[in-house]
């Protein structure tokens, strides 16, 4: 479906999952919803060859080559990567950027955080395309960078694609007219930077509120209550399923890691005890690390618990489709308990979720944290819910 406007569509992503979901959104827009359970043919003709899973950045530290400015792939879409600092995230983003180019999309890699002058240079270089874009797609409405860029744009359509569990909180905050605050941050925590950016955040909230001049779409696989006037389109991971797999299944059980410790929600000792309990109860042998998990924590998981730790170089939905994969995948409350059952539909893989006991939370965890985690678990319709584990003993 070609874009009617010559200005086309501009997408801003800061994580591998956001880029994957932009590709899923573009695929859905181009091919429509599947009929009779059949999957659309993937664009650019079939599966994409990939290298072995690992954590190497094949292009080194330099920026990925840009498509010519204004170049567009399917749906007239140009994807702008606002590169983060984190090496693991950068590595996954580079691999996802390769997939986007293989599908024919225009892509700009912006070193948006590469030094004191980088933000000003990035915003300046994007001002023209932002003003011209008829449609803007974003992956993280909580991002200050994205909020700043939105203040320069006047699109007729705004699309928010999934950024994991944060999508649920975004939809709820937008519906209630609240300021945008990430769910794992304490409600009252507002530093100097928050005060400086408050007008920008308020402007972004107004931009993301539909009116007679602008429509807003939420493209998601998460269960959300749509804010008034916001169109919700289901993400069924049709492109992922059509382009990859099905995976070869092993007889083992895999565990999916989370960054709940790194974000200050769960105590490290309690998390390790909980993973150990899953290993003992289900015979798990492999641990897929979240890209934000610390090296020290992963060393303990490998050394103390005897798990093979895998650092995927792509979002887990793609790694799982490629395989090999255990017949059972265990997870704590996270995005994957909603996305993996969709990506792995028809493969025979069981995704199971383990609740987080309130006693595992840190003293600094947001009062909203446990409620959201419980909502993530309780609303995972296609994942098996494991019996509540007793709270692990505190480690010293």
Beta-strand segment tally: 13
Helix/strand order, N-terminal first: EHEHEHEHEHHEEHEHEHEHEHEHE
Distance between the termini: 59 Å
- Average pLDDT score: 83
Helicity level? 25-40%
Total domain modules:
2
- Tell me the strand percentage band: 15-25%
Shape call: globular
Widest β-sheet, arrangement of strands: 3-2-1-4-5-6-7
Task: Give the biggest beta sheet.
Answer: 7 strands, parallel
| Low-pLDDT windows of residues | 1-6, 35-72
Structural class: alpha/beta
Rg computed from alpha carbons, rounded to a whole number of angstroms: 21 Å
How many helix segments? 12
Region (Disordered): 32-71
Biased composition (Low complexity): 59-69
Protein name: Glycosyltransferase
Please tell me about this protein's structure.
This protein has 396 residues and is an alpha/beta fold. It is 35% helix and 16% strand. The chain folds into 2 domains: 9-240, no CATH class; 246-385, Rossmann fold (3-Layer(aba) Sandwich). The protein has helices at 16-31, 87-102, 118-132, 144-150, 166-176, 192-207, 238-243, 268-282, 295-305, 316-322, 336-343, 369-378; strands spanning 9-13, 77-82, 106-110, 135-138, 157-161, 215-220, 231-234, 249-256, 284-288, 308-310, 325-331, 350-353, 384-385. The strands form 2 sheets. Strands 3-2-1-4-5-6-7 form a 7-stranded parallel β-sheet, with helices on both faces. Strands 10-9-8-11-12-13 form a 6-stranded parallel β-sheet, with helices on both faces. Helix 9 links the parallel strand 9 (284-288) and strand 10. The model is unreliable at 1-6 and 35-72 (pLDDT under 50). Residues 32-71 are annotated as: Disordered.
């Amino acid at each position: 479906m070609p874009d009617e406007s010559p200005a086309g569509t501009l997408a801003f992503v800061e994580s591998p999952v956001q880029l994957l979901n932009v590709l899923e959104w573009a695929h859905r827009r181009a091919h429509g919803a599947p009929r009779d359970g059949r999957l659309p043919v993937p664009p650019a003709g079939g599966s994409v060859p990939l290298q072995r899973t690992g954590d190497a950045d094949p292009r080194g530290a330099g920026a990925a080559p840009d498509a010519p400015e204004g170049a567009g792939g399917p749906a007239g879409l140009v994807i702008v990567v606002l590169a983060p600092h984190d090496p693991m995230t950068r590595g996954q983003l580079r691999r996802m950027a390769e997939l986007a180019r293989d599908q024919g999309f225009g892509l700009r890699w912006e070193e948006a955080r590469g030094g004191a002058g980088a933000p000003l240079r990035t915003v300046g270089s994007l001002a023209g395309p932002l003003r011209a874009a008829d449609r803007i797609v974003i992956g993280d409405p909580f991002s200050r960078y994205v909020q700043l860029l939105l203040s320069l744009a006047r699109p007729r359509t705004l699309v928010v694609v999934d950024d994991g569990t944060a999508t649920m909180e975004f939809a709820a905050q937008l519906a209630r007219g609240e300021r945008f605050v990430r769910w794992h941050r304490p409600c009252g925590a507002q530093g100097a930077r928050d005060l400086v950016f408050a007008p920008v955040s308020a402007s972004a909230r107004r931009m993301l509120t539909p009116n007679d001049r602008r429509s807003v779409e939420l493209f998601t696989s998460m269960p959300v209550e749509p804010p008034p006037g916001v169109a919700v389109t289901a993400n069924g991971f049709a492109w992922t399923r059509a382009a990859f797999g099905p995976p070869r299944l092993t007889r083992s059980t895999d565990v999916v890691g989370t960054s709940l410790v790194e974000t200050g929600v769960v105590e490290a000792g309690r998390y390790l005890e909980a993973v150990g309990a899953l290993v003992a109860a289900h015979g798990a042998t492999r641990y897929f690390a979240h890209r934000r998990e610390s090296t020290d924590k992963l060393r303990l998981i490998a050394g103390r618990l005897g798990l093979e730790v895998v650092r995927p170089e792509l979002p887990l939905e793609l790694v799982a489709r490629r395989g090999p994969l255990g017949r059972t995948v265990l997870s704590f409350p996270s995005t994957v308990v909603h996305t993996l059952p969709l990506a792995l539909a028809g493969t025979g893989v069981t995704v199971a979720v383990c609740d987080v006991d309130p006693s595992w939370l840190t003293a600094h965890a947001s009062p909203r944290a446990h409620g959201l985690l419980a909502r993530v678990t309780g609303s995972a319709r296609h994942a098996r819910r494991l019996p509540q584990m007793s709270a692990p003993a505190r480690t010293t």
